[in-house]
Amino acid sequence: MDSVGVAAAAPPDAGAGPAWQSKCPWGTPNTTSISCSLADVMSEQLAKELQLEEENAAFPEVVAVAEGPFITGENIDTSSDLMLAQMLQMEFDREYDAQLRREEKKINGDSKVSISFENYRKVHPYDSDSSEDEVDWQDTRHDPYRADKPTTTPRRGFIGKGKDITTKHDEVVCGRKNTARMENFAPEFQVGDGIGMDLKLSNQVFNALKQHAYSEERRSARLHEKKEHSTAEKAVDPKTRLLLYKMVNGGMLETITGCISTGKESVVFHAYGGKSATEDKVIPPECAIKVFKTTLNEFKNRDKYIKDDYRFKDRFSKLNPRKIIRMWAEKEMHNLTRMQNAGIPCPQVVILKKHVLVMSFIGKDQIPAPKLKDVTLSSEDMKKAYYQTLNMMQQLYKECNLVHADLSEYNMLWHDGKVWLIDVSQSVEPTHPHGLEFLFRDCRNVAQFFQKGGVAEALNERKLFNAVSGLNITADNEVDFQAEIEALEKMNEDHVQNHGKKLSTFSSDGDPPIYDE
User: Fold this and answer.
1) Which of 280, 406, 494, 509 is catalytic?
2) Is 406 an active-site residue?
């Protein structure tokens, strides 16, 4: 038998063996077992004692918590961390509120008008230790300085009896009711503290104030709508800004530098051209972006230029006034295209997006070409400009079948030694019901400007009208001349009504003479 077997067979009460026997891993451990009954094992008290012994063995050191005045009490359970946190927060709130009360007392003193820090108090609703003399601001929100609203009369329409009867038509009662009803006005309409002053408004005054408040509310709404949906001077609305961003992001424009001109109907910006998506279209290095203003105020008296133009007559509608603004941009694009095909110096159309028209820039290095009224020309250059203007008016009338309708020194630029025509959105055809009137007005503006400029060869407005139109109207004075023009327009209008087509019935003595220097 080996040594291991001898050790295992030895009786338990034998003496201590060698040291190697106690350290042998296969040896029987010397443990004393505690005998207990099954009832003791199932006892809850024994289980709690065992658990307590394990906790004491794991946490031998227990830190004693100093008891303060805020955790005293027989019915308060301090074993929960949440309850301790709430009690600590409550104690802090009490001290904070006490400090606020001291500040109130220090500031107010004996003054009749006092201030209150009620909005900054932090006392919890379950705080039961607050003193009885403190005011619970959470429950008393009534303003003692606010006057009560007047009581309404009962349904029967009167109160009182005999001589003390008061009906709903009483002057004092109605006045106080009207004062109280002013609180229903818009917040922007300041009505003041009429109830506190016991103000009595008559029905006439109240109705006037009510109408004024309603008018101010509508006016505020209109101003807000105008600000959100219209272009202002040197500014664009969000929709127009989005169109410009798309042009820049698409590569059509390199960058937009700034505003170069503002007018009644549009704002003009300068931009550097980019690359075109198609090879057949060439974008100039510098472009002018004409943004037509979306405000309708400037177009109320200008519908006569477009409503009788047969190109846009079917699309013109007074029920959709904002569409007229896009039609102005489209009309200028078509007119510039006609002028460009005829060889008249004018901006080149690049693209049209709704009410934004991109054209070539007349000028250099962000400096626009000066208007004819702002430039100082020599006598030779002034004479040259006159004959060029006369030639362009004849080309515009004969080849483009257009009348500028707003031609003056303000709409003509001087660039590279010649005159350039701009702003042709209001241009109409000669068969327009007022086409000849517009042409005569253009002739008057051109004749007066060049005559004041010292051009001796400048014709007067009547001779210039005949030279441009090719008509032979012989009248001694301007009144008779305009009467014959109106008669020709009436003949044309009757012809349109009878035949339904815009065909000119003006009698002409052949093509107008072309004046050249």
Assistant:
1) 406
2) yes
